[in-house]
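Rotation project, supervised by the postdoc (A.L.). Task for the rotation student: set up a whole-complex structure prediction and record inputs and outputs verbatim in this book. Inputs entered:
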Amino acid sequence: MIVTYNWLKEFVDFDTNPDELAALLTMLGLEVESMEKLGDGLDDVVVALVEEKRQHPNADKLSLCRVNNGKEVLDVVCGAQNFIQGDTVALAQIGATLPGDFKIKRSKIRGEESCGMLCSDKELGLAEDSAGIIVLSPGIAPLGTPVFRALGLKDTIFEIGLTPNRSDCLSLVGIARDIAAKLDVKIKYPPVTLTEGPENTNSVIGVTIRDPELCPRYAARYISGCTIAPSPQWLVKRLAALGIRSINNVVDVTNLIMMELGQPLHAFDCDRLSGKRIVVRAAVDGENFTTLDNQNRVLTASDLVICDAERPVALAGVMGGLNSEIENSTTSILLESAFFKPAAIRKTAKRHGLHTESSHRFERGIDIDGVVRALDRAASLIVALAGGVLAKGAIDEYPGKSERTPIMFRPEKANELIGINLDRDVIIDILTRLECQVTQHEDGTTGVLPPSYRIDIEREIDLIEEIARLNGYDKIPATMPVARVVSDRPTRHQEIEKQLRDILVNCGMTEIINFSFTAPDAAGKLLLNDDDPRRSAIKLANPLVDEQSVMKTTLLPGLLETTARNINFRSLDLKLFEMRRVYLPVDGADMPREPLCIVGAVTGSRDGDAWSRPNEQADFYDVKGIVESVLDYLDIGGVTWVAENLDPYYHPGKSCRIFAGREYIGSVGELHPSVQKNFEIEKPVFCFELDFEKLVKLSRTRKTIAAPSRFPDSSRDIAMLVPEGLAAVKITDCIKSVKSKEIEHVQIFDVYRGKGVPDGFKSIAVRIRYRSVERTLSEEEIVALHKEIVTNLVDKLQVTLR
Amino acid sequence: MRDQLEQLKSSAMQAIAAAPSVEALQDIRINLLGRKGELTALMKGLGSLDATERPVVGQLVNSVRDEIESALGSALASAQEQVIAARLQTERIDTSLPGRRAQKGTKHPVSLVIEEICSIFAGLGFSVAEGPEIEHDWYNFEALNFPPEHPARDMQDTFFVENSLLLRTHTSPVQIRTMLKQKPPVRIIAPGTVYRCDSDATHSPMFHQIEGLMVDSTVTFGDLKGILTVFTNQLFGQKTGVRLRPSYFPFTEPSAEVDIACVICGGKGCRVCKNSGWLEILGAGMVDPEVYRHVQYDAENISGFAFGMGIERIAMLKYGISDMRLLFENDVRFLRQF
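Outputs recorded:
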């Protein structure tokens, strides 16, 4: 909603300046989103007199002027032709800055000095276009007066962001009412002076409401013999300030009154209304109608239409029809002022994609009691501007009239909820200033009837809000609540989510957050089978773009796209993770599942090409190490790494699935080269996926801690040749299968292929540390135990000792 | 024997004084005092002396041994010192080369802000609640007093799924889910992902909010102001000015927009605050009785407040980020700075 400072002043007396007014409005809940001060900074553009005008010696189209600004006479070069010596003009003096940051400087134009510029409307931001400079009426103001002040154009335009509940403020008067209530002054409603002719309105026109549910009130007046003409300048400018284009004197009046009082009006060319009748009815399914914007609309039975005796002439509350619009030849007018049911207008406007100033007001609800006042005010102004005779009396069909009941109100409840302590009288006074009718009953209760335009006030709580608002939110003391102790701590899920983020960050990983939606073919890039459940994603009914049209079933595509994008920006060494929900439809349930997933990717050099460890490329074991850290941190035991039944997006020889006991908890591996290519990544990428729910379920909350042994250890190494296909874990498992409390630690410390190792074999070196918690182990005991282990390895795994 | 001892002592002293290195001194020790050493051999010879002479010579042997040992000890100590001094003279590394360290990882700024806000509210006794992102219309709108066809629904451009499911447009449905599950007192915050079909420099179709809800027997609007003042002061600094101004949300009444004094210009007016000196950071209000009706709370005997804020906006203010899209481009050159 746009309002101007000067215009508001016509309705309410205040002496606050524009900045203070903006603050006041904002603190009333009428947020000033922007302010434009017309003529601000243009005080150097002044009224001046052209004392002499002659031809520029070096340019045919320029003239040299001697211009008097009240203090001195200046030389000014001008290119406009539309003025003569003796005219009063607008002079931009040296130092002025015109709209568009155009600075006026002393200059030489074709050899002649120019100390300023004579301005056009366009140059002052007063018009989109102008044919010449402004020529002011002689003697408009003393020479040297700022032009904006002389023209009465000095004003401030406020753009107010209204909340949807404040439909009463979709008008100048509405906003003025709130200012008046806040400042405790009386509002001056615009005057209505009607001069009516002898003819009775209802002997010329008639109104029938067929659908009183959707149209509870319809008022109309009839004006004959008027002349359609351009509007006077004051009206054009006033509408322009609100961003409304002038059409003609009659249409402009309807728009002006809508902005002034909030009541949308419509003027019909009465001679084009068949039977000079108005019938308000529901449209017929499939009925055709051409609105003012020259669009053909196919109507449905839930659209409300205004008809004449034969056909629709307006889409009620939204837009008039081409068939009855005011034209230059129009002489008689039927003026409509009505109330339509908000929800119905909203549906119609939405269905036809037709959002107008009128529909905007009707769908939020207008003042049903103000219908006739707006009609009369508009009629009197039309007669004043377009002439003609106003027929006697208004037609006012009001089948929806109903008694409103007062709201039971407890002033102490207001104090209690807001946390203030206002006297009852002060509270009642606030309500009275808001034009509420307050009745104190004998039993001590208070009844409050809000004004008809405040359709948002229906309950006691709505009144309480008004008390807080008018009294001022800034007057409410900030207190700390008196509250009962609530004993709670983060859930296991919340704790582990945070811990996981911490551990991954400590592993050097960078967290990313991608959108939850993706392209429908995202699963295809991962080579997922046609029957893979991750291919059945939840679709959005109204996506912004196709690439964001389905909810993710896996985080991997997003992670890989991020990887590719970063590599394109030459960030080659990446460790990324994402911990977000995926969205999985559940058969038979109406709500999908939204489990949290964790994915990570590592690519490039291990230490970012550090000087101390050059050219070490990250590999499978880096990403496995990260997963091991996570599992270790959460104390998840019994983990096995199974290189079978891999997802198709993994390299089949360099990946595995991860189990804890029998539970599948995730996977880790090198990305399949084809998938890597699908995402346009050149170097290998190593990924992991972990199922958050499983991690939470399997993580151990209680640890039992053993005291460390105080006795000496003894380590023995075994180096062995084993076939390439033998998994290292078989060796460590075999060693641990010798159930001895004295085996403290088993570690593979070298894997070697090359010189001295035949093809198809690898050399593995294991270090076993022996130690007892009870005593110092004797050499003989250790030798015996170690021998048993070696024998076991040779017998069971057929390893060759080196 | 005595002469032998004297001779041994003087040659030993000479050898010790002339020894060039730690190793030479250790050799001398072995040669004299070792198992097969000269002095050891002499001491073994003590047994052949007669009983009267034995104690005297024995004493002498001991004193010679002590002298040699002490001379050896101090010579060794000074030789070792020289060795260290020589090492310190020659050993040099380039300390300007970068250290060998684990790569630094970083949390996403959205996660950082969520963690910070949750920990501030944990200190105020609020626990964390969660809810689904694909939500029922009833929880997202209707129970929050947005009736069907209500103009307030226009405030939130909604992504629809099907069967009256939608992507939640705010974290407020968590209020409803929480109140349906438990009786007052309630004190929760609910961080989460929300969606609106809108995309430009200041709007992202996916973003994050934190919702707060407190319901107890005598909670006031002044308490809301108090809690939010404490919160903003902890988040943005002790002296951050806070302003509440009237606004409208269907599920709160009275409702407020909460502004903080501009953290960029300190309230003097700048481009970020559009010269107002204030930055809007959250919406809040007293829970509307209509909401209590939907969760079967008795509005007459309880009261409470709710608030909600956009995480991205706070992250942008905290870190001076001007374009929201940076937060979701996931460029590591951006993310590694956090």
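Student's summary: The longest helix of chain B spans residues 53-90.
Supervisor addendum: Chain B has a mean pLDDT of 90.
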